[in-house]
Amino acid sequence: MEQRISLATVAQSCTLAFMSMSFTLTRDELIVPGQNPAADETLKEFQAINAPAQGHSASRPLLLIHGWNDTSVLPQGTVEAYHESVAAGNEVHLLRYPGLDHSATLTSSVPAWLEFLDKQFAGKCGRRASTDRTIQPVDLAVASTPLELPLNEEPLLSFLAY
C-alpha cells in the first residue's frame, strides 16, 4: 500500500484513481505490517475529527449531505452516524438526495451547504432540533452522473452478496 500511495502522490491522482489503486489489496495489505493501527497518530487524528459522527460531542451543528445512490459511501453508514450523533446530543441536519451518486450530490447540494456555512459564520445558528430531510433534485436527468463505482458489474457485483 505504501508504494501505491507514493505513486498516487507523484502522479497527483484524483480520488477515483487512488481508489482504483487500492481496490485489489486485501485488508492485511492496507495496513503496515507489524504496526498497531490503534497507536497510529494519523488514524487517531482522523478519529478525533470524525468523532461527532460516531456519537461524541460536537461544538457546532453538523450538516450531513448524502446521495442515496452513492456507491463510494453507503447511505446506511450515514444514517447510523446521524442517529448516533443525535443521541449524543448534537444538532445534526441530514439532507438526503435520492437518485444521486457521490460527486453529483456535491454539486446538487451547493445551495444547501453554502446557506449552512453562511449561517455558521454569521453566528445565525442558534440551537435547533436535528432534522432529516429528503431533497428532490430539480432535474434528476441533469443532476445525475454515471455511477462512480458500477456495483451492477463485475468485479464489484460480488460485493452485493453481503
UniProtKB/TrEMBL annotation:
Checking SUPFAM superfamilies in the record gives: alpha/beta-Hydrolases (SSF53474)
Looking up InterPro entries in the UniProt record yields: AB_hydrolase_fold (IPR029058), Lipase_secreted (IPR005152), Peptidase_S9_cat (IPR001375)
* Biological-process GO terms, alphabetical: lipid catabolic process; proteolysis
Q: Where is the Peptidase S9 prolyl oligopeptidase catalytic domain?
A: 19-116
Q: Tell me the domain of life.
A: Eukaryota
Q: A single Gene Ontology molecular function, please?
A: serine-type peptidase activity
Recorded protein name is: Peptidase S9 prolyl oligopeptidase catalytic domain-containing protein
UniProt source species: Fusarium oxysporum (Fusarium vascular wilt)
